[in-house]
Amino acid sequence: MTTLTREQQTELEAAAFRHLVVHLRERSDVQNIDLMNLAGFCRNCLSNWYREAAEEAGLPVSKDESREMIYGIPYEDWKNLHQKEASPVQKAAFEQNKPKD
């Protein structure tokens, strides 16, 4: 692989992150619980990581602000529009696979 400067690496990582966020916004049919069960993270995880990065940089970003950055709309609006009740199978899989604190 080509040797990248730190700035180039950051720019590429940011572009990949933006692409992931757009992809997740477009795939509102994919539920967070499905993401958690398959990949171990979801949109809320991304919003938490975004907020934590902002805090580390000394930038005040609220939970609601970071969620809106990921979802593209206020979280409550997204839930009302797209979130479905998890099935018993999804809930059982989550209990088996959820991250251990």
UniProtKB/TrEMBL annotation:
Superkingdom: Bacteria
Pfam families the UniProt entry points to: DUF1244 (PF06844)
Domain SMc04008-like: 30-96
InterPro entries assigned to the protein according to its UniProt record, in alphabetical order: SMc04008-like_domain, SMc04008-like_sf
Segments passing through the bilayer: none
Protein name: DUF1244 domain-containing protein
